[in-house]
Sequence to fold (443 residues):
Amino acid sequence: MMNLATPEISVQKLQTSLQAKAKAEPDYRFYSLWDKVCRLDVLEEAYRRCRGNRGAPGVDDVTFAQIETEGRERWLENAREELMSSNYRPQPLLRVWILKSNGGRRPLSIPTVKDRTVMTAAMLVIGAIFEADLLDNQYGFRPKLDAKMAVRRVFWHIRDHRRSEIVDADLRDYFTSIPHAPLVKCLTRRIADGRLLSMIKDWLTVAVIERDGRRTTRTAESRTKKRGTPQGSPLSPLLANLYFRRFLLAWRKHGHQDQLDAHIVNYADDFVICCRPGSSETAMVRMQTLMNRLGLEVNETKTRLARVPEDSVTFLGYTIGRFHGKGGQAFLGTRPSKKAIRRLLKQIHDRTTRQWYPDTPENTVAVINRILRGWCGYFDQGPVVETYNLIRQYVDRRLRHWLVQRTGARGRGFKRYSQEYLHETLGLYRLPRARADMPRAKA
Fold:
């Protein structure tokens, strides 16, 4: 009988099987994994995911469009042949710099499409295994978990369990600081396949190329320092979770969680420790000690103690603290942080400046809609109506101003560009007017 299973379905079956084995036998080490990475269906699914992310090309300048034009099936077969014959070698990463909201920059290391596909194939295989080992307070880059769940977990600790003293921690350059030797130990605890381990080590130490006009520089920082997982690699989120798991296990093993009633909530390199009153200072000292042992540096200037509700704490874009309703009644809840709101308004402002006058109103509204839908899709917890109203007013005013200015007309455009015109004719997204019920409680 013909097998009609798509690569996505067959990979899901493989992952289910691997994860079931890992859950059933916590000490089991997997020996035959490289052959699964090389499976054509796994590579096809990996390529599909990479293409869906619409990433930029790497150092070889090969794009997804080129691969599709020249033949995706042949390209995947060639890649598989390289892997099976041990001729595959990862190419250097292309480093670009991304502006941060505070004016700084962070490095992004872009693999070639081929390397990205192979890394994703490896992630599809080993990710299913290590998913069984990650802890229930790790929320980053995991199936069926997200940042909003982490925020709700923090709120639950504060409201329901009175763990109202918070260690708001910050690690300095976590991804680029992870030491390779203990990270590899995290991997070998489950992986006994030498070819796969060797390939992951190669990916960790691959050279980096940076282009600045006509000048090209090549460095091997990771190989020299023996630290770091490249931000931009499909494997980095999983590796970062695995290493952070060491800290979480040590926190429990040394008794800090039970002795101090201090519970950690983690998302990628962000984490807070929710403590019972009077224990947060001790928790912070013990956290710093463990991080030092793990070879990680705590950013002391950004790490602070907060006592909720007298203080507020911002975690993953949400501010948790005491707010006041229309009647003046105080409540404990979450709201989008001021920083998150300012960042959104700046995006809207930057998309409605003079440089965009040649663009059509329909296209500009389509871009604004994508921004608003994405933002509101995340910031929809708690009493957000007041924030939505502020954003709605700003967007309407800013869009009208842009429409007036691009035509050289005068005035504010209230008559010419009415609410009906903005929302019905142009299709501007209507922000929800209903408020979410959680998280919120009397303060």
Remarks:
- The chain has a mean pLDDT of 93.
- Residues 137-178+238-316 form a domain with the Alpha-Beta Plaits fold (CATH 3.30.70.270).
- The first helix runs from residue 7 to 24.
